[in-house]
Specification:
GO terms for molecular function: DNA binding; DNA-binding transcription factor activity. It comes from Kribbella sandramycini. InterPro entries: DNA-bd_dom_put_sf, MerR-type_HTH_dom, MerR_fam. The chain is mostly helical. It is built from twelve helices and no strands. It has helices at about 5-10, 15-25, 40-55, 60-65, 75-110, 120-125, 135-150, 155-165, 170-180, 190-200, 215-225, 230-250. The longest helix is centred in the middle third of the chain and has 36 residues, at about 75-110. The radius of gyration is 32 Å and the shape is elongated.
């Protein structure tokens, strides 16, 4: 029979049959004088077995190993492995649905930020954070918090969010200071006075989370998003914070 007839008989496509030839799942049959492939009953039986195995969820490389094993022992082993894998997938799916159920409940109660899902720590921080829409610094700060949520290691995130939560009462003043610097030169006298005011708003605990020389990827991304005067003021404020923290620790 021709390839189209074989495909119809087994219930697969001619494209799948050609793919199986390429993978070595199905041996190339003899060709007629006119160049067409000539398939027989053995090919149909083999293809039917391949179809049944793939319908069980086996990958094609696993199917190839099975059909090459005449003893049949490998089939039982592979099927057992498949059953274990499906059990793991079921467990992972149950866990994901449980997390989703919690997020859905939170969203319906109005406690999930529009940027969610995010960690419970950031959810709490964003819920109490004043974000005036007319303040570019406030909008940008919210975006930076979401960025930190992604790049800060999970074992450090909770402590950092706790420290940032201590800043909530002064955020409106902080945003106003930064907005006022937006169009100034970094050597403007207002930058130094703003740096002192900013440092006073930063909690001492933040010093422990500052990278050396502010050279990590998260810090570089943060400062690139600021105007020159804002970046200068914040760098000065962070230096003042570190000095203050070291003096207090000494």
């Amino acid at each position: 029979m021709r390839i189209g007839e074989l495909a119809t008989l087994v219930g697969i496509t001619t494209r799948a049959i050609r793919h199986y030839h390429q993978l070595g799942l199905l041996p190339e049959p003899v060709r007629r004088a006119n160049g067409y492939r000539e398939y027989g009953l053995a090919d149909a039986v083999l293809l039917a077995r391949v179809r049944r195995l793939t319908e069980l969820g086996l990958a094609l490389d696993e199917v190839r190993r099975i059909v090459a094993d005449d003893a049949g022992r490998a089939l039982a082993d592979v099927l057992a492995e498949l059953d274990d894998d499906l059990a793991r997938q079921e467990a992972a799916l149950r866990e994901r649905r449980a997390r989703l159920a919690g997020l859905l409940a939170q969203a319906r109660a109005g406690g999930l930020p529009s940027e969610g899902p995010v960690s419970p720590e950031l959810t709490s921080l964003l819920a109490g954070l004043s974000t005036p829409t007319d303040s570019p610094s406030a909008v940008r700060d919210r975006e930076h918090l979401l960025y930190l949520e992604t790049v800060v290691p999970a074992d450090q995130r909770s402590a950092l969010m706790t420290v940032l939560d201590d800043m909530r009462t002064g955020t409106s003043e902080l945003y106003a200071l930064l907005d006022a610097l937006a169009h100034l030169r970094p050597d403007d006298p207002q930058v130094a006075s703003a740096a002192i005011a900013l440092a006073a708003l930063l909690p001492d605990g933040l010093a422990a989370h500052l990278p050396e020389q502010h050279a990590d990827a998260a810090s570089v991304t943060y400062f690139e998003d600021l105007t020159p005067a804002q970046a200068a003021a914040i760098r000065q404020a962070l230096r003042l914070l570190k000095h203050r923290s070291q003096a207090g620790g000494g």
